[in-house]
Amino acid sequence: MVTHVRAEAKGDERGALLAFLAEGRGGLRRALLGLSDEEAARKPSASELSLSGLLKHVAEVEQGWIARAKREEPAIERTEANWDECFRLVGEETVASQLAYWERVAAETEAFIRAADSLDTTFPLPDQPWFPKEEVSLRWVLLRLISEVDRHAGHADIIRESLDGKTAFELVAQESGQSWG
């Protein structure tokens, strides 16, 4: 299994926000424990969401926001033409490759945020109709990422339980080598 970047809260705001983001990442990552690529791609509900699709989506979203905060272009630009690829693995992509990619993105996020002069540093929102034309702070982007990852970690809990009945508590125990119940 890919190692997990873990931000430790040291009593400061930056550390606390990074720790909450890491916690959400862990929830989504744990939902994939022990599943094959085929199992992770299943869509066991009326939704089009799968665990592997959620993994890919949150990694891309995090990379995109941090790139924008750095005033760079996101590695992958999604448009109406390729939006569906944001929620499914394509080509040679695997759960393992997406976990490794997200691990690199998480390390980049943490390094960038820790090196920033201030969480009050701002950058412009993307030029999209659903965003107002304004600048937002690094604090804002961290809160946006926490919200995004936590929302999808909740989806992942439901999908995983629908696949094989395993709950988040069981997966936490499994990850730590303990038994649940």
Layout of secondary structure:
Blueprint: H1 13-30, H2 37-41, H3 51-69, H4 95-115, E1 122-124, E2 135-137, H5 138-164, H6 168-175
Antiparallel strand pairs: 1-2
Helix pairs in contact: 1-4, 1-5, 3-4, 3-5
Protein name: Putative damage-inducible protein DinB
Organism: Phytomonospora endophytica
Pfam families: MST
Describe the protein's architecture and organization.
With 181 residues, the protein is mostly helical. The protein has one domain (13-175): Up-down Bundle (Four Helix Bundle (Hemerythrin (Met), subunit A)). The protein is 54% helix and 3% strand. A two-stranded antiparallel ribbon has the order 1-2. Helix 1 (13-30) runs parallel beside helix 5 and helix 3 packs antiparallel against helix 5 (138-164). It is globular. The two termini are 24 Å apart. Residues 1-7 have low confidence and may be disordered. It comes from Phytomonospora endophytica. This is Putative damage-inducible protein DinB. InterPro entries: DinB/YfiT-like, MST-like.
